[in-house]
Amino acid sequence: MPNAITMLKADHTAVKRLLKELNSTTAPKSREQLVARIEREVKTHSQIEEEVFYPAYKAAAERTDKLGLVYEAAEEHHLVDIELPSLKAANPKSHEFEAKAKVLMDLLEHHIKEEEGQMFTAARQLFDDEQLRELGELMQARKETIEAMWESPFLRPMKKLQGVVQKLAPVKVKNAKIALAAKAIREEAR
Q: Distance from first CA to last CA of the chain, Å, rounded?
């Protein structure tokens, strides 16, 4: 089982590849299919970060100068939550679509660069190898559940509703959820 950082980096690589493919194609049908794949990858990735990785990171970084990274990452997720539906709504034949795809790629590449360069570096100092593996196992289990929701015709509407709620929820709400989970982690560690 890969550790949490290895798992998140693999997701980053997959999303970057899809974004490059999206920004190099002009075929409307291919663009629509790529946006759907990007949406699924990004939403799944964001959800496991916000539900598992960020709370654990926040609990471990509570008394360090690296705590602010979790808040910045949540803000960046929020911006992606706004831009992605805007891209989906754009005509895939239009210049507007190309511009929105480029902005989304820039946003995600910036987020990935900071997360991998700063947050993951700090996480390696805050967690030992065993803790990173345990986080990876929790994240993998959650990822499998989320992916099953995308696959199931019965659960897909619930997953879409979750996406709408995620988009509309202010970052304050997301940060509050992360803080509550971090508090539970700290209390369990006592």
A: 27
Rg (CA), the chain: 17
State pLDDT tens for residues 89-114. Answer: 999 999 999 999 999 999 999 999 99
* DSSP secondary structure letter of residue 53: I
Rounded Cα–Cα distance for residues 104 and 40 (Å)? 14
Structural tokens at position 98: 């190309």
pLDDT category, 80, cuts 50, 70, 90? very high
**CB 57, CB 73: distance < 8 Å:** no
For the chain, how many structural domains are there in total? 1
In this structure, what token pair is assigned to residue 179? Answer: 């803080």
Angle at 112 between CA 184 and CA 120, to 5 degrees: 50
C-alpha angle with apex 113: 111 to 118, nearest 5 degrees? 95
Long-range pairs for 60-64: beta carbons < 8 A, 24 or more residues apart? 60/123, 60/126, 60/127, 61/122, 61/126, 62/182, 62/186, 64/122, 64/126
32: containing domain: 4-189
* CATH number of the domain bearing residue 133: 1.20.120
Residue with token string 């970060």: 49
